[in-house]
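Morning F.,

Quick status update on the modeling queue. The single chain you submitted on Monday has been processed. Sequence for confirmation:
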Amino acid sequence: LTASHLGLDTIVTPITSSAAIDTSGVARNVIRTKVGSPFVIAGMEQALAAGSNAVVGFEANGGVLLGSAVTSDGRTLSALPTRDAVLPIVCALASASKVGRTLRQTVDALGAGHALADRLKEIGADRSGPLLARFAADSAFADAFFAEQGKIAGVNDLDGVRFALDDGSTVHFRASGNAPEFRCYVEAPTDPRARALLAWGLAKAAGEMGVSRPA
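Structure tokens below.
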């Protein structure tokens, strides 16, 4: 919504952010990065170096980084490549007001679906590393792992391993970069499907790593 309202056609964001960024058609250029603001900033610098002059970056937690200055009605909003929580709030509200919709209707128009995330605690790299490596290298193993949920339509191993399923859902497994945790992110067309995928994904991964899933 921030990119659309400000006319910014290049979005830089981690692989864990909503797939709606790609499917909504808001941005002409989407650059996916590893999780963490330093990677987003590096991606924005890459976009600017490549000639883009309308760049915005953000993380899934809501922090927006304005990569280039924006001029509107004779006024200029300077670039601010550090996380800002105010700009996305203002832009979302202004976007809704401009088209005469509620904020809920404005968000729903993006077709973002439903996203959820959770984690398994006290999972070190000695347990998560082999599973993630096998996901990335062994397609037969991955197909068998997901067989009860659907066919795998795509795989991205930029940061952990993200699987796109044939019903439009996604399941993304990755190890936390700052804690002994194994994280699971899901997106699905409906809330029940997202909740079911998240519970299944954590339980299934825990079983493969030989750990128990806390109640």
